[in-house]
Amino acid sequence: MGIIIYVILGGIVAGVLSSAASFASLASYPLLLSLGIPPVYANVTNDAALIWNSLGAILSSGRELHGHWKQVSYYAIFTVVGSIIGCFLLLSFPAKVFEKVVPFFILLAGTMIIISGRKKALTQEIPSSWKKLFFMFMLILVGIYAGYFGAASGVVILVLLTYLNSSNFLVTNAIKNAVCGLTNLTALIIYSFTSHIYWLYANPLAIGMFIGGYLGPIIVRNVPEKAIRWVIAILSIIQAGIYFYQAYFV
Q1: In angstroms, rounded to a whole number, what is the distance separating the alpha carbons of residues 250 and 246?
Q2: What residues form the membrane-spanning segments (predicted)?
């Protein structure tokens, strides 16, 4: 019973981090590893729980998502295609390769969230048609990464959506949560047939993530956008450092 409570509480923390700052894996992935689950299977189990985090965030973001479901569907097409490719890459490559590339993806994501705050200065010289094609292609790439691992993939999706639409941060973050939900659902369907999910831990983790996912958007509404960006960047550096140490020195 103590382990179940531990997983639920960890899921709440992860859910808040995911829906508010796109960093569920900072809490949920290490939590699953601490239970003795191998890295690749921890990722798969994490995907199974993340679906409920997205559902909680969507229910809490009704007013932000109102009128934006067409955008959600459109962006999700690209990330879902990428997710399918990423899932099969994860099942094809050795776990050691998986562990060693993760820190660099996370660090890149943290850098991008700060850079995206200056999006107008960075993209004003790029023709809009080319810019749109570039960011759509990037959505496919981040979908591949989301299916392959997923840590900080929400941050990259958030950055790309910042460039692709003119909505404020609250709306963009809500769209990101919905897009990530569809992307993770795709990965879960594939992994259900091709890999092993530790349902004993995935279910209580999902309960916690649903609660945390619902609380995250409420927190975001009351925190300045600049502060959220810097929190995300700092968390990415911490997580990248932890995974780098585990991959190269343990």
Answers
A1: 5
A2: 7-28, 72-95, 101-121, 133-164, 198-220, 227-245
